[in-house]
Amino acid sequence: MRRIALVERYMPHISVIGSGVIGLSSARCLQEAGFSVRILTREMPLQTTSVAAGAVWSGSALEGRSRDWAAASLRYFLPLTEQPGSGVILQRMREVYPEPVPDPWYRALLPAFERVPARDLPAGLVDGYLMDVPMIAPPIYLQALHDQYLAAGGVIEERAVDSLDDAAAEADLLVNCSGVGARKLADDRAVYPMRGQTLLIDAPDIALGYMDNSRVDHIFPRADGVLIGGVKLDGDWRQDLDPAISADVIRRTSAIESGIAEAKVRQGFTGLRPGRAQVRLELERRADGKAIIHNYGHGSVGYTLSWGCAVEVVALARDLA
Hints:
Order of helices and strands: EHEHEEEHEHEHEEEEEHEEEH
Shape: globular
Mean pLDDT: 95
Largest sheet: 9 strands, mixed
CATH topology: Rossmann fold
Number of helices: 7
């Protein structure tokens, strides 16, 4: 009788640096693809910049590969809006502009889309969209993703990583999702902090979201309250709450929704978004033969790009397997 030997394909053991939305998404997606994964992180998910994010799916400023990643993330998030406890809801948003704008590239991908009637545009603004998009509550979503990762056998080591070479030596493949930390860790001078500051308020009567990208003003009704903001201070490394900025955020957003002025502020957030002219998502082969997949520099659209970038990380990892 002829015997057939079954050879099991070896799957690399992968270390992921970072447990923000980019690192956690990459780790979970790799895990779903069958890889053995551990996360190395200085901060646990609910301590990262990702917990301070506005976290709405927003594709308006995207070009090139980022559109593909955003579309993939949208396909992932939409079913989650129907799952209680996911932290993701389908939210009607009003996105406004100071000049006429064409229909966005993603119009056909959304469940609902229309133009903002002229009568509903704030003073000084001339165009806008009304659309239903995924809105994520980071504390809920990150915790759920974290729990799924652990339940599937994932490991998290809470420790700082000071050297890519040292971390790469401990695994078959390293995935670098260090966010703004990549400026030092990957010696990437193109990375810079984009400081943000937001407030979570109790305002259950606010049903319609609002976003003015020209002024960074936003009102985001979420599963955990209403998030208002914001600011984008490039090159600012401060992480303390600035009371003057908080007061200005309330002033600006209450001009759109008057009830905000009297709303209770539950929590303030600051975070350093990882700014970069372009996302770095690529495979680097080191001189010692080790491979590192870099996945950082997502700026203010980390959630929008998160799952799509994670899918590409898996594709790169499979090419090495």
